[in-house]
Structures are given as C-alpha cells and as structure tokens.
Design brief:
Length: 289
Amino acid sequence: MTDPSGERLANVVSRLLGWIYVACWSASFYPQPIYNFRRRSTYGLAIDFPVINILGFVTLTISNAVFLYSPLIRAQYAYRNRVSPEPTVRFNDLAFAAHGVFMTCLSYTQFWPALWGFKVDKRHQTVSRPALGVTVGSLVGLGVVCMIVALRGIDGGAEASGWAWIDAIYAIGYVKLLVTFVKYIPQAWVNYKRKSTDGWTILQILLDLSGGVFSIMQLLIDSSLQGDWSGITGNPVKLGLGNVSIFFDMIFIVQHFWLYRGSGAKETSEDVLNGEQRPLLDRRGAESV
C-alpha cells in the first residue's frame, strides 16, 4: 500500500478490528461462569473444557508475549520473513490471551465447592483421561522440541537458518490450535446425540464467531499493509484460531437455529447425571447421551 493517507486509515482500521475481536472473544468467556454463579452449580459444564482451555491460553500468552517483546525471536522471524519482517502479533492479541488465562482459571475454580460453595457432581465432574493425555502429551511434545533446538540448533538455537528458538515458540502456539480444535468436537457430538443445544449458550457462540471473523480481517489488513501475504503464514496460530473457531461456531449455529430448533427440553437433574456432567472428552459420556 503506497498511499500514505490510505495506509494510515488501514492502520486505524486494523487496530480497531483488533480491539473489537478482543472484546468479542473476551465477552464470550462470561456467559457460562455467570450462569454457574446464578444457579450455584456447575451442572451442565464439563470440567475438561476449562482444564484444557487453561493450557491453551497459557501457551497462547507465552507465544504472543515472546513475539512482541523478545529481540531474539523477532530477529529470527525477520530472517525467515525478509519481505515483511515485522510479526503480525499485536498487543491486543496478548491482552486477549492474558484475559483468557484469568477467565479459564476462574471457570475451573468453580468446580471447587470449598471455594464457591457450588453443587458439584464429583462422580462425573473429574478430568478425563483423554483431557489429561492432551495436556501431558502437549507438554512432552514441547519439551522434545526444546531439546531438539538446544542440541541441534546452530549456536544453541540462536541462528535462524536451522533449528531455532522461534520453532519452539511456533510449537507452543500450535498447542493452542490443538486445544481449540479438541475442545469443540465433544460438544458438537453431544448436541448431535441429544438432538438439542439446550445448556450450550448461543450468545457465547455468536460472540466467538464475531471474534473469529474480526481476527481474520485484522490479519488480512496487516498483511496487505506489509505488501506480503507471508504475514499470514508467519502467524499461523492467529490464522488457525480464527478459522477453527468460525468452522465450529457455524456448526453450533446450524444445530441451534435449524437442526434442533425448539427441541431443547428443560434440564432435569436426571438428564444431568445421565450424561451432561461427564467429562467433555469422556467417550462413555458421549455414548450415553
């Protein structure tokens, strides 16, 4: 983009879109915790969801912070993206991730009766083995990548032409992508088995969808300003998060407004104990719904 006035306008629009998507995605954290507080219970929320989300947002926060403030990582990024050497990660990305850590931790603590006094079904609201597998497997994978960089990288990973610490940061970001993909699948399956979206807040989904769209728009504008679309591939985490969120949000919207419209039954304690409260990734729970 060569027109100075047009470039300034595009920069303003980019920053605006960035904070709008942060507002939308951040707002999507609140419906479920507020609902839990009002009913003094975590029935209807699987503990796997906040547990895995904590891992995802911690890794996203680390990834965004390093791309913003680490001279080494920014230099390695510039080396590998010479046409557009400036990372497309913005401060609003970091703000969103840090806020996500706080909210997911808050949601997780609502499963502690001693802290909130909420009713918790201890028989079923325990972290499932698949969720633990995703968490432990991700941490082990990150450890392996770090070892490879340290042992095989040139100058201990400081040289970007080989295995470098930027590869470890990319791996950290990919954990968030994995978490985002995994956390949505069980809920979509449960809705399908129940033929209902009752208990899954559609406002949360609409906010999530809006955030995904605005996030992708900001990424496109930033890459256009740099005159190089490698800015998109250079920020695969942000691109992937937006696209995965949009994909699953559309599934939930179709389920709620078309496939199972009007089919939501009033939740009963029997319904809760028969399936809703099993861990989100528990295959037995999905089959029993």
